[in-house]
Design a protein that fits this description.
With about 190 residues, the protein is an alpha/beta fold. The chain has helices at about 45-55, 55-70, 100-120, 140-155, 175-185; strands spanning about 5, 10-15, 15-20, 30-35, 80, 90-95, 125-130, 165-170. The N and C termini lie close together (about 10 Å). The structure holds adenosine-5-diphosphoribose.
């Protein structure tokens, strides 16, 4: 891994910069935003609700077509749609509902990996993640942030033809932001 630190809210891994911002994912100027969805892709509260509101009804239609064609989206998997009124595309993933089982960790890591695979395969440059599973699905932030950070860093450390330029974590509240900042400090060389 070729890593270089810029400041406390960013970390360079190879060609890609991981950045941390506190804010609303629906207003980010990126190529794709990740939605912490449910298996039915029917919309909901939290970041899912915010993304569906900002995107408009065509996002729900696109989700419905996917579920009719492929069935419900299992936890840990990801699919991509257009973003309706949003300029970014939307990558929908379903995080684990936290129950403290070892497999919760694997499922959460799969979410990040599968979203990054979709972004890379579509040759996207910039992708933004919310803090998956740490709201309604109740994953403790102190456990979830290091899993998210390590999984993304590990993915970006693998050799590949297409490198993302930026992976941005968009954290909605200050406590979540601080947890990701701490997780970033722990992996900083
Ligand atoms: N931008 C960024 N992050 C946001 C936003 C937003 N606009 N709104 C909420 N968040 C944050 C929450 O504060 C939390 O830190 O996203 C994180 C994830 O919380 P949830 O949205 O509740 O997602 P999750 O825990 O994965 O639960 C998914 O919630 O709404 C339903 O349909 C969704 O059933 C699914 C479940």
């Amino acid at each position: 891994m070729n890593e270089r630190s810029d400041n406390t809210n960013s970390l360079r891994i190879g060609e890609t910069t991981i950045t941390l911002v506190e804010g609303d994912i629906t207003t980010q100027d990126v190529d794709a935003i990740v939605n912490a969805a449910n298996s039915g892709l029917i919309g909901g509260g939290g970041v899912d609700g915010a993304i569906h509101r900002a995107a408009g009804p065509t996002l729900k239609d696109a989700c419905q077509i996917i579920v009719e064609r492929e069935g419900r989206l299992p936890a840990g998997q990801a699919v991509m749609t257009d973003g309706g009124r949003l300029s970014a595309r939307v990558i929908h993933t379903v995080g684990p509902r936290y129950r403290g089982r070892p497999m919760d960790r694997d499922t959460l890591a799969s979410c990040y990996r599968n979203c990054l695979c979709l972004a890379r395969d579509a040759s996207l440059r910039r992708v933004a993640f919310p803090s998956i599973s740490t709201g309604a699905y109740r994953y403790p932030i102190e456990e979830a942030a290091p899993i998210a950070m390590k999984t993304v860093a590990h993915f970006l450390g693998q050799p590949t033809e297409h490198q993302l330029a930026e992976v941005r974590f968009v954290l909605f509240d200050h406590r979540t932001f601080l947890a990701y900042q701490q997780a970033m400090e722990r992996i900083r060389p």
